[in-house]
Amino acid sequence: EHLYGEAMHAWAASKQDVVRRRQRKTDRASGTGDTVAELTSESQHGHPRYLDEARKTLADLRRVWGVDAPTRVAVSAEPFGTWTDEALEQELARQLARLTPATVIDVTPASPDGASDDEA
Asked: pTM here?
């Protein structure tokens, strides 16, 4: 919270008008000189980096306070919680059958002379 306050204070200070002072002295050939003083004031809009730091600090505070916590998800076994053991076994067998390939492909490499391992 202190860092946020400092960043906002720095941003407010960066919006203050800037006063520039300039002084010139001119010499004349007669040995006399004139001094001219100028004051100029320029309006400032504030530097956005201070607002960026304040925003980052607020994001850190939200994380610390848990405001940005992820949404809770209730995990339950409802579809299967009321099933009997026999029904669960049948469903498991059905799902395993879907995952098991229907045909098995023999990928045994042939021997270098072109004959299979059974013939050799």
From this structure: 0.41
